Amino acid sequence: MSNNIAGKDLPLTEAVFYILLSLRHPNHGYGIIQETEELTGGRVVLGAGTLYGAIQTLEKKGWISVYSEEAGSRKKKEYLITDAGREVFAAERDRINELAGNARKMDEEV
């Protein structure tokens, strides 16, 4: 993915960042919510509306895909990040690292 393509999609919202991070392995909606809360010490709590709206958008962009779908009335789906999603996530990670590095430089100058 070129920097221009990644650049127009950045920055990611915090919710999207954690959804993509949670999908480095197959995961379902409730698992994404739990993992996000755990990773952030409860600071980020994804609501169902936010989560499933983001999942729809991420599927349309091709950043995640359905990994498996349980048959039955609830049809629990597991999702997985795609190569395109990994590229966008990596670009966002690099952007955040740059921000943090620049902040550290400012701290050193003070």
- Considering the protein shown, what is the CATH homologous superfamily? Winged helix-like DNA-binding domain superfamily/Winged helix DNA-binding domain
| Count of separate DSSP helical elements | 5
Give average pLDDT, whole number: 92
For the largest beta-sheet, the strand count, sense and barrel status come to: 3 strands, antiparallel
Structural class: mainly alpha
Strand order of the largest sheet: 1-3-2
The portion of residues forming beta strands comes to: 5-15%
Give start-end ranges of low-pLDDT stretches.
Answer: none
Instruction: Assign a percent range to the helix content.
Output: 55-70%
Under the CATH scheme, which architecture would be assigned?
Orthogonal Bundle
Record keyword descriptors for this entry.
110 residues; mainly alpha; Arc Repressor Mutant, subunit A; 3-stranded antiparallel sheet; 62% helix; elongated
How would you describe this structure to a colleague?
By secondary structure, the chain is mainly α. It has one domain (3-109): Arc Repressor Mutant, subunit A (Orthogonal Bundle). It is 62% helix and 12% strand. It has helices at residues 3-9, 14-22, 29-39, 48-61, 83-109, and strands spanning 27-28, 64-69, 77-81. A 3-stranded antiparallel beta sheet has the order 1-3-2. The radius of gyration is 16 Å and the shape is elongated. The model has no long low-confidence stretch (mean pLDDT 92).
Quick recap of the structure?
This protein has helices spanning 3-9, 14-22, 29-39, 48-61, 83-109, and strands spanning 27-28, 64-69, 77-81. By secondary structure, the chain is mainly alpha-helical. The longest helix is centred in the C-terminal third of the chain and has 27 residues, at 83-109.
